[in-house]
Here is the input.
Amino acid sequence: MKNKFNKSLIASIFILVFHLSHGEISSVYLTSNVMRSADSLYSAGKYNLALDNFKKIYKSTPGYNDDLMDFKIAYALYKTKQYDSSAVIFYKLYQDRKFLSEFSHFFYIQNLMTMNPDNAIENAEYFINLYDGHILSDSLVVTSAEYYYTKLNYSKARDYYLKALKRQISINKNVYYAIQAAKCLYFQNQQKEAKNEFLQVIRKSSGKKETLNLVFLLKMIEPEFFYDNFFEIVDVYYNNNEYEALKVLLEEYIQFQDNTDNLQEARFNLIKIYYAQGRSRTALYGFNNLLDQNLGTHLEPYIRIYIARCYYNLEQRQEAVDAYLEYAEKFPRRRNAPEAVWKCARIKEEDDELDQAVAFYRKLRNRWPGSYYAQEAHFREGLDLYRMNRFYEAEQVFNEVRANNWRDSYIARAKFWAALCRESVGDLITARDIRSKLAEDLWDNYYTMKSYLLHKSYFDSTRGIIRQFQNTADQLKYFSNGFALLIPSFEEAFLVKDLLGPEFGLIALSNIELQAKSKEEWIALAEIFKKFGDYGRSYRIYNYINSKYYNNMPFSEKAFMIKERFPFYYDQQVDYYGEKYGIEKELILSVMKQESNFQKRALSRANAWGLMQLIPPTAKDMARLTGKRIDDNQQLFDPELNINLGTLYLKHLDKLFYGQKEYMLAAYNAGPHRVNRWKVLPDSENMEVFIENIEFNETKNYVKNVLKNYWAYKLLTTNFHADNPNILFGLK
Here is the structure.
C-alpha cells in the first residue's frame, strides 16, 4: 500500500513539475476562467473562439509572455487561414525562442507556401537539409519537387523526385515519382536517357495506373518509341485490364503490320484477351490455329502453355494433362516446365488418381531437383501415399523431408504428418513423442501449436508449461528504465500531441525511434506508441525486440514477449462487434494480426484496406447491410468502421460454412467460390487434407497462420485452460 502511495505521489510531483516547466500553471491560469475556456476551445478545434479568448488574456495581462500559448495562437491562426499573422509568431518561436523548433519552423514554411511559394521554397530547402531524415522534412521534399516542376525548373524537380524515391517517402507513390523524374529529363531535352527510364518503369510496374497513364502520354508525344516497344506496352494495357482498348490497339497494329513475327505476336496477344475474359473455348480455337503457324518459333512454348490452361478451364482434364506434359517434354529448360508437371500431378489428385499423381511428383523431383516445385512435390508424394493408406511408405517420405535442410516450418509440417502416420498404424506412443518435440516450440507455427493442443493435458502435467508461462519477468521494469532515459524526448512528443493532435505526436515519436539503442529504450518506445494509439508501430517494435534480444530464448523465459506478439489491441471495438455479430474476439484479433499487423492504414497491392484488409466491393456490400455508405475508400482506414465491416463479413462466412474455421479463413483470403471447389476434392473432409488441397500457397499459409493465432489467443484469454476439443476442429 505504501509503495502504491509513493508511486502516486512521485507521479503527481512529476506532472506538476512538467506543467510548471511549460508555463501551463501560472497565476493567470489558476485565476482565469478565460485561459481554461481558451484551452478547451483549442482542444475542441474551435480555433476562432479560442483566439478570441487568447486575445482577452493578452489584453488583461500586459507583457504576458508564454511560448506554449503563443504556439497555440499561431496554430489557431494557421487553421483559420490567417497565414501572415501565424507566420510572424512561428518565426519568433523557432528563430528567437527555440520552442519546438522543428514544428515551429515547419509551420512557418507552411504559412509561406500558402501565401507565396516563391518566397517559401528557399526556407523549405534549408529545412530539408537541416532536418535530414525527419518526417516533416520528407513531406517538404515532395512539396519542393512539385513546386519546381510547375516552375519548369526540371533539374531541381528531378533532384527532389529522386530524393523522394531514395527515402521511400511514400511507397505507394514510388512509380509516380519515378515517372516524374524521367519526365524531368525528357523536358530538359535528354530524351534518350528519359526513354530508358520510361522503359524501366514500363517493365517493372506494368500493372500500375500511373504506368498506364504514362503509355497514353507516350502514344501522343512519342509514337515512334511507343511502337518500337509495342509488346512491352501491350503488357501495361493487359495488366491494367484495359482489354477493349487493347483489342482496338492490336487490331489497328495488325492491319498495318507487314513484319510476320510481329504480326503473329500481335495475334497471340489478341487471343490472350479472350482467355483473360474467361472465353476459354474461343481462346483455345485461336491458340490451336496459331500453333500450326508458329511451330519452331519463339511463340510456340507460350501458345502451348495457354492451350493446356484452356483445356483445364474447360474441364477437359486428360487433354490438359497431355498438353502440359507435351510442353514440359518439348521445353524442359524453360521455367514453366516443372510447374507443368506439377499441374499434371494436381489434376490427378483432384481426380483421385493418386498413383498417377505420385508418379508425376517423382518425375518432377528426378528431372528438376533444384526447383521450388521439387521440394513441395517431395512432401505431396508422402501426402498421397498417406491418402492411399500406405502409411509406412508415406512415413518414409516424410522422414526424408525431415532430413533436408529446409526451413523450420517445412520440417515441422513433415514431422506432424509422420506422427499422423504413426497414429494410423496404432503406434500412439511414438506419435505423441514426435508431437512432444514439436510442442517445445509451441508458439512457432501451426504444427507446433496443434501438436501441443492435441496432447495438452499430458504436456501440462508432465512438463509444467502453464507454470513456466506464469513465472515470468515483468517487462515494466524495462519500461520504466527506458522511459527514464528518454524522458525529454517523450515530454516533447506528448506536448506536440496536445498542441497539434495525435498525427503530429506520432511524427515526434518517430523521430525518437531513430535515437533508441538499448532494449530498455525500445520497450519504452513501444509502450509509448501504444499510448498514442499507434498499435501497428508498437507491434512492429516488439517484433524487432523479440528478434534482436529474445530470438533464441525459450518461450518460458520470455512470456511477456509472447503476450506482445499476440496483443489485445482495439479491444473495445473487438469486444463490441464480436458480441454483436456472435464472432469470437480471438478470431477477430487473429485475422487482424495476420492481415495488417494492427496497422490501421495498411493498404496492400491487392487493394485491400485497413486493419482487416477489406476489398472495397466486399466492404460496400457489408456497409449496405449496416445501413452505412462507403463513398471514399479512405473511410476504411477508420478502425471502428473496418472492424465493424470485417467482423460482419466473418459472420457472413460463419453462416455460409457452418462455423468451420478452415473454410471461413480460406474464403476470407481467396473467396467463397474457391472454397466450394476445394472442399469437394477427394478426402477434403479431413481438415488437414483440405488445407493441403488449397490451390494457392498464400491461402494455405494464411489459414494455418490465422489458426495458430486463434489458438494462441484462446490460450491467453483462458489462462491456458482452453480444453474444448472444438477449438482444434475449427468449430466454436
About this structure: The longest helix spans residues 697-717. The radius of gyration is 31 Å. The mean pLDDT is 88.
